[in-house]
Amino acid sequence: MTYDLLLAFAVFAFVSSITPGPNNLMIMASGANFGVARSLPHLMGITGGFGAMIVLVGLGLAQVFDAVPVLKPALAVVSVLYLLWLAWKIAHAAPPAQAATDGRPMTFLQAVAFQWVNPKAWTMALTAVTLYTTGGTWAVVPVALTFVVIGFPAMCFWLLLGVQMRRFLTSPARLQAFNWTMAGLLVASLWPSVAPLLG
Hints:
Elements: H1 3-18, H2 22-67, H3 71-91, H4 96-99, H5 108-114, H6 119-132, H7 140-166, H8 172-188, H9 191-198
């Protein structure tokens, strides 16, 4: 990868990682509801799972979608349904005191698996592989590592933002409003994936 291409990719990786999307909104909600320590497996699952996703897409998974076109809309439908279920869970999350005993944040493996039904993750991975990989098959590995290095602090930003908001969510009414707002934004983030299915 040339210097110019690496710089362009770094900008793409930063912008796509820091802008709102399902991962960002969910890790912020986790930080607000569960704090940093209990949300760390979720955060590590996002970064590690997405890095692995880029490698697998780059090694040929994208060709499977070209060979079997029906898989792509089928995955989109499954993704939308799963994200709607997650939005419902966020909207009905327990207050922090109750969540400390009753609630459970997303685990590492759940966060890894979530990348495969996250429409934004698919878009980012396919774009990264298509536009920024050069050379042989394994040229996708440095692209994945770069995304992990840049994406990790972006996820930390959203997690810490959620933790800071926790100080203002001391009343059940505020927490409920926050969780419903996060759920609504998560549903709104599905529009780019839903629109092609409707049109």
